[in-house]
Amino acid sequence: MLILTRRVIFWSLIVLFVIHSFLVFTIGTEEDKGETLLTKDALNGKLVYQKYNCTACHQLYGLGGYMGPDLTNVMSKQGIGELYVRAFLQNGTQRMPNFHLSEEEIIFLVAYLKYVDKTGISPVKKFEINLNGTVTQK
Amino acid sequence: MKKEVGLLFVTLGLVALLSGVIFGVIGAFQFVFPEFITTVSFVKIRPLHVSLVVAWIFSCAIGGIYYYMNNCCGTGLWSGKLAKMHFRIFVITGLLILICYFMGKFGGREYWEFPAILSIPIFFSWILFGINYFKSAFNKIGGWPVHMWMWATGIVFFFITFSEAYLWVFPYFRNSLVRDLTVQWKAYGALTGSWNMLVYGTAIFVMTRIKGDEKTAHSKTAFLMYFLGFANLLFGWAHHIYIVPAASWIRTLSYGMSMTELLIFAKMIIEWRSSLEEAKKDFHIIPYKFIVASDVWIFLNLGLALAISVPAVNIYSHGTHVTVAHSMGSTIGINTMILLASAFFLISDITKSDFSAAQKKQISLGFWLFNLFFTVFWCCLIIAGIQKGILTVEDKLSFQEVMTKIQPVLTIFAFCGIGVLAGLTLVVSPLLLSAYRYFKS
């Protein structure tokens, strides 16, 4: 393969990467169904989630650790909801340590999880598999 | 005596590998038995394990590149001082990160859980590495072999994707979960692709040296495979976020791109018989033995990666231990085998001495022990993942019910971790001993 050919392929891929990244950063991710719940408390909750490394054990959209459950829809899950979540955050469990969170941190985390809940569904349980291997969520 | 900075990185990497695997075994037992070692919680153990293993991959790959550029590639190293400065920053930042984890000071995100401020020295050290690499590489007369292209790509794209992974510090990215997760996993997908470029480039370099055949590193096939891998690094990351509600074209493009890897898979199957014959011939050469093992792990993990890139499979496997099998298979199976091959090659080249017969026996025992236990370990993760996927998606069981059902297979997985650690210790200890003797001399 000629050196010039290699360079042309390389730089073409770079140009495509830049265009692709721009589209992902903008129109590819512009829809946010939970936007109305994106309060200041929810944004602080996200930082609390990072401060205590919740991702070591929990997932959002299946991304994160495996020790605890996926928290994407924990706020709207039948039989769980806000009171249940608050109890976990205040006391911990056999598997989850008590992080001794302040009342303010608990408020922030609950607000964040409420926002996350409205953005979509995880894990997806209602779907249709298409012939080409893709999936349509119901 | 002037010591090789490359070996400093490799030695540090070997220590990080053993420490990382020890934390991994502790974490696996904590996962199965929550009362196991409660003084350091799983929240701290997981990042310690992940960061140390990532440090091993980078440290050994960087060390190899410094050494090979300085001694074997005909380029020389532009600045030994800059390389040593890079090493010092690497050590100091690494120690600070470990201290933060032990103290429970987080603030970052998955894989980079340390406070964001510690990413600054990492950026800086990478700039030093990049300057040193390119200043050295441009001394090369004639076209670069494919491994030098791969190293260059790995260096540049680590910098780009590591920067991308920190876009969350800007409100535009942080304030939308969909955008944040998509960009985070776009960066992570490409970031692992970048370190794979460093590692696979190292594999090609070691192979050309063992075989004494430079031509393959300039061949058309080698470059076609490189560009295919590069395109996948850039566009084939979205299997991580198929269920995140971003635009559907992101998923479709990535699905199509991932399927191009079928070409690599097919190539491996077609060349299977000749590769096997070839492997038998030189299997007694220690670095070659590890390269052959990495080839087997590449085949298995590529098959797994192709499967989970199909959305119809991903809907079941996503967020399960199948994903862990994919990442462990890549980092411990493929990358570690290649980097150990590189470490053996490099240490033998520096010390100009061979291992004793007893050490060779020990290395061989460790090699088989590691691969045997790691195979069972990897299969357990896949079985647990498939079980979890079906029980969650089809049977709609709760998290607790699912965990109870997959507990037995995860218990086997945790015990296999001890075998993996034992195998690696047998392999790594002669390397550390040789490095120690070299630095002492």
Describe this entry's structure for a reader.
The complex is a heterodimer of chains A (138) and B (441). Chain A contains four helices and four strands; from the N terminus they run ααββααββ. Chain A is mainly α and 138 residues long. A two-stranded antiparallel sheet of chain A has the order 1-2. A two-stranded antiparallel ribbon of chain A has the order 3-4. Chain A is elongated, with a radius of gyration of 20 Å. Chain B has a domain at 1-141. Helix content of chain B is 79%, strand content 0%. Chain B has helices spanning 5-32, 42-71, 80-103, 119-137, 146-165, 171-174, 177-211, 220-235, 248-259, 262-270, 272-282, 286-309, 311-317, 321-351, 357-393, 399-440. In chain B, α1 runs antiparallel to α16 and α2 (42-71) packs across α7. Classes of the chains: A mainly alpha (138), B mainly alpha (441). At the A-B interface, α1, α2, β1, β2 and α4 of A face α2, α7, α8, α9 and α13 of B.
Task: Record the SSE blueprint.
The complex is a heterodimer of chains A (138) and B (441).
Chain A: H1 3-25, H2 40-51, E1 59-60, E2 63-64, H3 81-91, H4 103-119, E3 127-129, E4 135-137
Antiparallel strand pairs in A: 1-2, 3-4
Chain B: H1 5-32, H2 42-71, H3 80-103, H4 119-137, H5 146-165, H6 171-174, H7 177-211, H8 220-235, H9 248-259, H10 262-270, H11 272-282, H12 286-309, H13 311-317, H14 321-351, H15 357-393, H16 399-440
Helix pairs in contact in B: 1-2, 1-3, 1-16, 2-3, 2-4, 2-7, 2-14, 3-4, 4-5, 5-7, 7-8, 7-14, 12-14, 14-15, 14-16, 15-16
